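To illustrate the input format used throughout this study, we show a single complete record. The first block contains the structure-token representation of the backbone; no residue identities are included at this stage. The design step must infer an amino acid for every position from geometry alone.
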């Protein structure tokens, strides 16, 4: 997994488990933002947290980059 810093253009190459540990807070923030967006979008079709987490992690790169507030973004998985 290759991550880049938006401010310093630093590149970080780490494995997926390392990413989950190091960016746990940023992933959680991105998921909460994603969850709020999905609940507002599909008010008639309430989705449970399991299906939302599956959909979030299915497209982790896009969701982390667009719903997260981190200075890091996923360049390549």
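Output of the design step:
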């Amino acid at each position: 997994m290759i991550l880049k810093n938006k401010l310093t253009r630093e590149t970080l190459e780490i494995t997926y488990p390392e990413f989950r540990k190091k960016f746990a807070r940023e992933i959680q923030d991105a998921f909460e933002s994603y969850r709020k967006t999905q609940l507002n979008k599909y008010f008639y079709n309430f989705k449970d947290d399991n299906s939302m987490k599956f959909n979030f992690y299915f497209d982790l790169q896009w969701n982390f980059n667009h719903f997260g507030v981190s200075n890091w973004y996923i360049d390549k998985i």
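Structural context for interpreting the output: The longest helix spans residues 24-41. The mean pLDDT is 90.
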